[in-house]
Amino acid sequence: MKTIKYPAKSDWQDLILRPEREKESLLDTVKSVFNDIKISGDSALKLYTEKFDNVNLTQLKVSKEEIDDSTNKISMALQEAIVRAKNNIEKFHSSQKEHPKLIDIEPGVICWRESRPIEKVGLYIPGGTAPLFSTVLMLGIPAKLAGCKEIILCTPPDSEGDIHPAILFAAKTVGITEIYKVGGIQAIAALSLGTESIPAVYKIFGPGNQYVTAAKKYAQEFNISIDLPAGPSEVLIIADEQANPSFVAADLLSQAEHGTDSQVIFLTTDEAILEKTLKEIENQLKQLPRKEIAAKALDHSTAILFNSIDECIQFSNQYAPEHLILAIKDFVNYVNKIENAGSVFLGNYSCESAGDYASGTNHTLPTNGYARNYSGVSLDSFVKKITFQELTQEGIQNLGPTIELMAEAEELLGHKNAVSLRLK
Amino acid sequence: MKTIKYPAKSDWQDLILRPEREKESLLDTVKSVFNDIKISGDSALKLYTEKFDNVNLTQLKVSKEEIDDSTNKISMALQEAIVRAKNNIEKFHSSQKEHPKLIDIEPGVICWRESRPIEKVGLYIPGGTAPLFSTVLMLGIPAKLAGCKEIILCTPPDSEGDIHPAILFAAKTVGITEIYKVGGIQAIAALSLGTESIPAVYKIFGPGNQYVTAAKKYAQEFNISIDLPAGPSEVLIIADEQANPSFVAADLLSQAEHGTDSQVIFLTTDEAILEKTLKEIENQLKQLPRKEIAAKALDHSTAILFNSIDECIQFSNQYAPEHLILAIKDFVNYVNKIENAGSVFLGNYSCESAGDYASGTNHTLPTNGYARNYSGVSLDSFVKKITFQELTQEGIQNLGPTIELMAEAEELLGHKNAVSLRLK
């Protein structure tokens, strides 16, 4: 971890840079897979699954028995944890429901808006040894709350042709039953184009490797929308003299262990805390199973000493972190000053892991500086908001002349005529 | 206008197709302009403006005098109309403000979310003979309400180097003062990369021709977000026996006059209304200054007779129109059945022109079937929603074991450790 003390403001622009990602274009690969899926559907999916996941599937869809069996394959304690997290996530996302408010604009002119679910959504859950069942909750719960009619979950099978039971149990807990054993570009292609067994959807959610990311980007050419542009995960922690170096180090490392391209930024006003935290990182790192990944992430990470918490907040706003932890005493005074961040954790006991799993907030958040212009996933991500208006005869009499004047000035006489006829 | 009676459901998929747009790739052109702007900034902007707008500018920024002078150059009646529309749009968009709700998740765990403005936004207003000042209101008002700090407006100058006074007056009315005389790809490049005089922004809004559209798409490579993907404008009208054929025809034509690639769809359950409306279209078309454009749009537009209003609504949901007009008696009973639409107009007196200009709703809406997965522009488009959480020591004691179990099951021991240290 690089350490910098009191950098000049002119140097900040360099300090907020993210680690460069390889910009290898995968577009040709993606196009060719999409084309195969378009032409050969399920049979192409099975061929790709054999090639990349080393398993020959006869059936892509996870059976009801497999889903039900998941309960027997994970501990009761984990089941209870998943249910508890589900309840919290549901509670928080329920609070995001918007109820129509009729607005009386002028006599005879009423406008409002109403939310409608995106009818068909696809959720992608990556494979690998660690099953990301928490992401099933984070995407499935708001999809259900929104009322999406078709929720299609795709995730790659292991070499036995199985899906990890924690993923199936989380899906079952949420109420998702359409689960398909397919991953990679081919999964995104199936969700975009549809096959004999997998229905096409309107919006695709979920994390993935560079192939999945490239495929999600390409899916947009087919009028599909996606949750968020991709980028490496990151946390920025601001600590004052009362922070706990051991907690701060653990939070930095929990982000660093995500991937070698993760980035962690540590800002403090206290030199002793800085030194102690760096030492703690060194000690804790040794204990981590994923220490090699975390160490590489720390290589392009930075600790910076600043003169004031205000300066730390300014820097953070410029960096626009995915996760922001305020390990400071009077965090209450700084909430209003936060301009760009995905999700914010306040005080010494609000660790990022809480939001990653179980406190209720969503963990699908804008990375790579996108917190400047994107929100994280929420109930809003699964609905459209449609505006409605009702003008009575009185309403158009009132407002009509205004519309006529404006339409005429824009030289759209058809627009004007639609009003004039009604005023007659 | 093609007329179809009682189509089979199996034919619907063909009937909802939009007119094909030329898919000429403008990417090379766009890249080369972006590159010129990156290297030469303002001087490249001036060269492009000379080439495409036929005017040699010394200053790109519209002066305070020019903005102030706009008041003298448009009629008092138009000024009043713009101010009235502004008040209505402001009233409606103000109602979209979200106030933080603290959610008690568990003892010691509180979560909420707060909106923050996107700090820097760019608004693009196309040029041409007709000044689209209404779009200045539709984008500028929510940007101001959201609290965006920098609102940069770009619009191409005429051959005298001037901006239409109605655009300047609308901007002034909204409170926008950063206005630049630049259009086309070069404007989007300037907003994306920044130049000596034009600041770079985080999100770009506004309509435009195929060049502007291609440039907005490319801007996303620079981590810029955009309002909506582009497509031709469209309206779908559903009418029953009590509808007024003259009103319906005028509404269809007001959409058709937008552009040759516009599409209008007319659904009715009443054959007499169908015939009368087609006749009315013929008559009214002759009177329109933009009759040639409208006639071409009608060439790829369709009128369909259905058996029931329910069937019309089903078809409309499948089509997912940008604008939907329900010229039916008991529209109240059908509001809940509308699943996909950008903006909905209820009853015989709610013409689309009202929403285009002055009733308060936004006119920047999802086209081309994007109403299935996108909302129109609203206050939400100019903010990010940031989640916050505060866990007390009690909170982490409560929830900690759940988080530990889940993190361990995902094999993220660093995540678990961040909790375990706090439980000690």
From TrEMBL, chains A, B:
<dbReference type="InterPro" id="IPR012131">
    <property type="entry name" value="Hstdl_DH"/>
</dbReference>
<feature type="binding site">
    <location>
        <position position="323"/>
    </location>
    <ligand>
        <name>substrate</name>
    </ligand>
</feature>
<feature type="active site" description="Proton acceptor">
    <location>
        <position position="323"/>
    </location>
</feature>
<feature type="binding site">
    <location>
        <position position="255"/>
    </location>
    <ligand>
        <name>substrate</name>
    </ligand>
</feature>
<feature type="binding site">
    <location>
        <position position="415"/>
    </location>
    <ligand>
        <name>Zn(2+)</name>
    </ligand>
</feature>
<comment type="function">
    <text>Catalyzes the sequential NAD-dependent oxidations of L-histidinol to L-histidinaldehyde and then to L-histidine.</text>
</comment>
<feature type="binding site">
    <location>
        <position position="415"/>
    </location>
    <ligand>
        <name>substrate</name>
    </ligand>
</feature>
<keyword id="KW-0368">Histidine biosynthesis</keyword>
<feature type="binding site">
    <location>
        <position position="255"/>
    </location>
    <ligand>
        <name>Zn(2+)</name>
    </ligand>
</feature>
<feature type="binding site">
    <location>
        <position position="356"/>
    </location>
    <ligand>
        <name>Zn(2+)</name>
    </ligand>
</feature>
<dbReference type="InterPro" id="IPR001692">
    <property type="entry name" value="Histidinol_DH_CS"/>
</dbReference>
<feature type="binding site">
    <location>
        <position position="356"/>
    </location>
    <ligand>
        <name>substrate</name>
    </ligand>
</feature>
<feature type="active site" description="Proton acceptor">
    <location>
        <position position="322"/>
    </location>
</feature>
<dbReference type="GO" id="GO:0051287">
    <property type="term" value="F:NAD binding"/>
</dbReference>
<keyword id="KW-0479">Metal-binding</keyword>
<feature type="binding site">
    <location>
        <position position="124"/>
    </location>
    <ligand>
        <name>NAD(+)</name>
    </ligand>
</feature>
<dbReference type="GO" id="GO:0005829">
    <property type="term" value="C:cytosol"/>
</dbReference>
<feature type="binding site">
    <location>
        <position position="258"/>
    </location>
    <ligand>
        <name>Zn(2+)</name>
    </ligand>
</feature>
<dbReference type="InterPro" id="IPR016161">
    <property type="entry name" value="Ald_DH/histidinol_DH"/>
</dbReference>
<dbReference type="InterPro" id="IPR022695">
    <property type="entry name" value="Histidinol_DH_monofunct"/>
</dbReference>
<feature type="binding site">
    <location>
        <position position="186"/>
    </location>
    <ligand>
        <name>NAD(+)</name>
    </ligand>
</feature>
<comment type="pathway">
    <text>Amino-acid biosynthesis; L-histidine biosynthesis; L-histidine from 5-phospho-alpha-D-ribose 1-diphosphate: step 9/9.</text>
</comment>
<feature type="binding site">
    <location>
        <position position="233"/>
    </location>
    <ligand>
        <name>substrate</name>
    </ligand>
</feature>
<feature type="binding site">
    <location>
        <position position="410"/>
    </location>
    <ligand>
        <name>substrate</name>
    </ligand>
</feature>
<dbReference type="GO" id="GO:0008270">
    <property type="term" value="F:zinc ion binding"/>
</dbReference>
<dbReference type="GO" id="GO:0000105">
    <property type="term" value="P:L-histidine biosynthetic process"/>
</dbReference>
<protein>
    <recommendedName>
        <fullName>Histidinol dehydrogenase</fullName>
        <ecNumber>1.1.1.23</ecNumber>
    </recommendedName>
</protein>
<comment type="similarity">
    <text>Belongs to the histidinol dehydrogenase family.</text>
</comment>
<keyword id="KW-0560">Oxidoreductase</keyword>
<keyword id="KW-0862">Zinc</keyword>
<dbReference type="Pfam" id="PF00815">
    <property type="entry name" value="Histidinol_dh"/>
</dbReference>
<dbReference type="GO" id="GO:0004399">
    <property type="term" value="F:histidinol dehydrogenase activity"/>
</dbReference>
<feature type="binding site">
    <location>
        <position position="258"/>
    </location>
    <ligand>
        <name>substrate</name>
    </ligand>
</feature>
<feature type="binding site">
    <location>
        <position position="209"/>
    </location>
    <ligand>
        <name>NAD(+)</name>
    </ligand>
</feature>
<keyword id="KW-0520">NAD</keyword>
<keyword id="KW-0028">Amino-acid biosynthesis</keyword>
